[in-house]
Task: inverse folding
């Protein structure tokens, strides 16, 4: 018994010290393709990304690519640093993060990713049907719940739309905070279900997230949905994209594009696609579509500079 | 013992807290822990940002109490710690995952999962160590996520954990698992003879498996060559662990060469409603030339009054954690009927039927209160191998406070 307890103790100590040492020892090489993503849950995302990375690397051996590595960053700023320094070659991200990475590190959009089977999604604003908010302008002096400051459809796009309507936005720390009559107070609920619950209980006056969340029972239970009305729908945006660093070997870039485009027809890619956030396929975007994503950087700037904190 | 446990917890937590990076968007490049992510939402998890190394410390405490409305035999009201477990799991060098869990509930270290798996050939996974043989949906679903406090009567026939090697595969609809096993690590070897061995495999198919809607079908088979003592015993409590009474008991069946198990599984989830059922048959091949065959089944229904849905994980083909929708938690009503018959040929191990009514309150994702009322109906052979009055029909009321982290 004592031996066993001591063994557990030793194991915990060893592992907690082994982790940082392992990171310090790691480095990327020219024969390694590195796939990056912003993540606060690297354990989960590692399992999502690894099969697709392996699938791609296995089809690049003739180009000298022997190994695949995953590199997840806690913030978009960290990921941009890794792309700019050449430590990350390939990124899978949302459009708003893609816009930032393009601006901050020069990363280029390679393909669209039909994440969870969807090519596009859009923001929906909603409120209680029996409440006072029937349109965005009614939010003056009221509150809205959003997800977190990294979200495309549940932060940047809804805030940008409200700013364009001439609303003045103020960040609140809690739904208990008062907001003055000429402003709209917004707060972060962190998870979609929390947004729905805050609106359901009348603790905030409205919420915003994507149309996919609207249809998802885990994010919006039907008994809540029955009480809500959509008060505004924003134009659709691309669901997700694959990017590469601008100075990636053109042969590797071309092969990656070719390999990803063929996954839809390759039965051997089915397991990797499924793991890769249930991606249905990859397809090419037009120059205009890519530009519309890059232009989201202006939305980010506009939102970041217009807020009263 | 408790000093060591406390020290273990404190050391792990303080080590991990020291690893936490400051909240700086780009991070401090000179900080050696910049590339670690620490998560304390339920347990303690530390992961490198390349995902190649991770460690998670978790555990569970189940505090139970039971009151018996006795009929013919004394069962003994009481309370106990049903589970007192520490779990350590993680990933090493990208391709290897491991789990090590020990339960201290009965005052001794009872090794549960202790395995390492090779995880580089997605969607295959190859395991070696001490883990559950792939048999029975209810057995494979963690007790943390089961609808009722105890598994149903036919679980007495399921193999549980053994030392072994195994493989697991899954795609969008199906899963397959198979393994070659020795005996349970916790079984004492009390002679010089060879231990037994077994092969077990399970195939599942989910025609659909979406959030809040799933249909699960499964079949499993298992063959076990018994150890040199050639003894086998099937016995079980009346779905209540505080009593030590095992109404159903075949006694030690000597001159038994092997056992063959067959299991059928089904589960259906539609929003807040779910049904689940299994049938298990065990055939014992004896030197006497006889083949006593036992079987049992259960069917259960559950309904979340608060709207949640049981979460089916198609990849592993089992059920997972309930996530309450509102801040008052989730409330679930459930009922189960189970039956096990250990009477066949020369064996009179008894037969029993139990109806259970259950009420669960999931205060949040990690904390749950459970109340079960059981109505037991034993036959004339259900006498604990001759030690009890048969045809006992007690009612049982039992409660659990459960936390897992």
Result:
């Amino acid at each position: 018994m004592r031996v066993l307890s001591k063994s557990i103790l030793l194991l915990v100590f060893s592992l907690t010290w082994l982790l940082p040492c392992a990171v310090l020892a790691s480095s990327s090489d020219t024969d390694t393709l590195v796939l990056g993503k912003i993540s606060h849950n690297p354990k989960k995302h590692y399992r999502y990304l690894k099969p697709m990375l392996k699938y791609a690397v296995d089809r690049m051996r003739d180009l000298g690519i022997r190994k695949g590595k995953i590199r997840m960053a806690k913030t978009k700023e960290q990921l941009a640093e890794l792309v700019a320094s050449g430590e990350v070659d390939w990124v899978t991200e949302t459009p708003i993060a893609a816009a930032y990475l393009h601006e901050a590190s020069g990363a280029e959009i390679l393909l669209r990713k039909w994440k969870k089977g969807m090519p596009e999604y859009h923001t929906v604003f909603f409120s209680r049907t029996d409440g006072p908010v029937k349109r965005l302008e009614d939010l003056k002096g009221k509150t809205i719940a959003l997800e977190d400051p990294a979200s495309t459809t549940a932060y940047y796009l809804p805030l940008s739309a409200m700013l364009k309507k001439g609303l003045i936005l103020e960040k609140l720390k809690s739904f208990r905070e008062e907001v003055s009559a000429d402003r709209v107070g917004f707060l972060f609920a962190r998870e979609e279900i929390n947004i729905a619950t805050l609106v359901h209980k009348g603790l905030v006056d409205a919420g915003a997230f994507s149309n996919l969340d609207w249809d998802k029972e885990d994010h919006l239970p039907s008994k809540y949905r029955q009480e809500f009305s959509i008060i505004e729908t924003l134009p659709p945006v691309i669901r997700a994209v694959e990017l590469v660093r601008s100075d990636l070997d053109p042969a590797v870039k071309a092969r990656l594009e070719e390999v990803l485009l063929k996954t839809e027809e390759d039965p051997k890619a089915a397991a990797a696609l499924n793991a890769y956030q249930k991606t249905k396929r990859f397809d090419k975007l037009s120059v205009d579509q890519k530009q519309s994503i890059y232009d989201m950087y202006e939305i980010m700037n506009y939102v970041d500079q217009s807020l009263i904190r | 013992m408790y000093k060591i446990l406390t020290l273990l917890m404190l050391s792990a937590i303080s080590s991990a807290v020291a690893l936490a990076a400051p909240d700086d968007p780009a991070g401090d490049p000179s900080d050696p822990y910049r590339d670690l992510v620490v998560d304390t939402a339920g347990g303690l998890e530390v992961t490198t940002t390349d995902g190649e190394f991770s460690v998670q410390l978790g555990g569970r405490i189940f505090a139970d109490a039971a009151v018996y409305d006795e009929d013919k035999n004394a069962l003994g009201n009481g309370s106990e710690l049903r589970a007192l477990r520490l779990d350590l799991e993680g990933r090493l060098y990208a391709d290897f995952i491991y789990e090590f869990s020990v339960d201290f509930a009965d005052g001794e270290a009872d090794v549960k999962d202790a395995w390492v798996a090779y995880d580089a050939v997605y969607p295959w996974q190859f395991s070696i160590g001490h883990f559950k043989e792939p048999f029975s949906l209810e057995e494979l679903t963690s007790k943390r996520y089961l609808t009722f406090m105890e598994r149903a009567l036919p679980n007495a026939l399921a193999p549980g954990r053994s030392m072994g090697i195994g493989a697991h595969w899954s795609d969008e609809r199906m899963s397959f698992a198979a393994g070659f096993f020795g005996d349970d690590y916790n079984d004492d070897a009390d002679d010089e003879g060879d231990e037994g061995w077994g092969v077990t495999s399970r195939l599942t198919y989910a025609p659909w498996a979406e959030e809040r809607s799933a249909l699960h079908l499964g079949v499993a088979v298992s063959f076990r060559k018994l150890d040199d003592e050639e003894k086998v015993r099937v016995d079980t409590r009346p779905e209540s662990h505080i009593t030590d009474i095992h109404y159903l008991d075949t006694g030690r069946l000597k001159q038994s060469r092997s056992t063959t198990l067959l299991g059928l599984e089904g589960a259906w989830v539609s929003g807040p409603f779910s049904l689940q059922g299994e049938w298990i048959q065990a055939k014992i091949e004896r030197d006497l030339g006889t083949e006593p065959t036992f079987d049992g089944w259960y069917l259960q229904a559950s309904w979340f009054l608060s709207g949640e849905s049981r979460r089916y994980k198609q990849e592993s083909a089992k059920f997972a954690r309930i996530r309450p929708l509102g801040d008052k938690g989730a409330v679930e009503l459930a009922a189960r009927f189970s039956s096990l018959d250990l009477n066949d040929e020369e064996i009179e191990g008894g037969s029993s039927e139990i109806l259970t009514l259950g009420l669960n309150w999931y205060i949040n994702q990690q904390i749950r209160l459970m109340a079960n009322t059981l109505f037991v109906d034993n036959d004339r052979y259900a006498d604990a191998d001759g030690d009890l009055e048969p045809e006992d029909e007690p009612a049982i009321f039992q409660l659990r406070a459960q936390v897992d982290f």
Observations:
- Chain B touches chain A through 56 residues (CB under 8 Å).
- Helices of chain B lie at 2-19, 137-140.
